[in-house]
Each structure stands twice: as C-alpha cells, then as structure tokens.
Protein: Protein ApaG
Amino acid sequence: MSTYEVSIQVETEYLEEQSMPEKEQFVFSYTITIANVGDSAVKLLNRKWKITDANGNTTEVVGEGVVGKKPHIQPGKSFTYTSGTVLKTPLGHMEGSYGMVDDDGQFWDLPIPVFTLAQPNILH
Structure:
C-alpha cells in the first residue's frame, strides 16, 4: 500500500502599491509550496478557500486546480505558486483544502491550515 504525506508552507505579503485603504481595498499575495514527502505521486484537482476579514465577512472560493494548473507532484518534489486576494480590512485570514488524488485513484482532502493576512505593523 502506498502512503502519501504532503506538507504545506505559506508565505503572505501585503501589496501596498495595489491597495487603496481609503476605499477599503487591502491587497495580499500568498505563496504556497506543496511538498510531497510521501512515497506516492499525488495530483491536486481542486481548491476550496474560506477568506475572512476583520469584520467577520467571509468569502468562499471553490475551483479547479490552482492558478490554472493541476500539478502532479512526484515523491520528493514540490509545487509552488502565488495567488492573491483582496480584503476590505487590513487584517484577515484564510483557510481551506485541496482536493487530491493519488496514482491509485484514491481521493482525499488536504487541509490548508489557517494563515493570517495582515498589513505590516497592524499586529503588535
């Protein structure tokens, strides 16, 4: 039987040059690295995101792949991509899951832990 282990690393950035605080538009990018540390290849099929701003407003995003791709990640390899989101507040968070499948046709959800989106110096 094959085993799969996948780790997720997230880095976020506030994009000041694209943001317009006076219009409640705070733009963030996030770079995610999906590393396959198991012994079977895996493929990312879809994504589900829950994006919440500091006012508690939540947006759900569901779609195929990530950035137009459905990466097939071999054991010992990783896939990195950058995407973005816009909040109405300078602070918020995201969480979600990736729909995955292994080469044996086993489907599973890979949880994406909560990560913070924050304008610099907003948190002490």
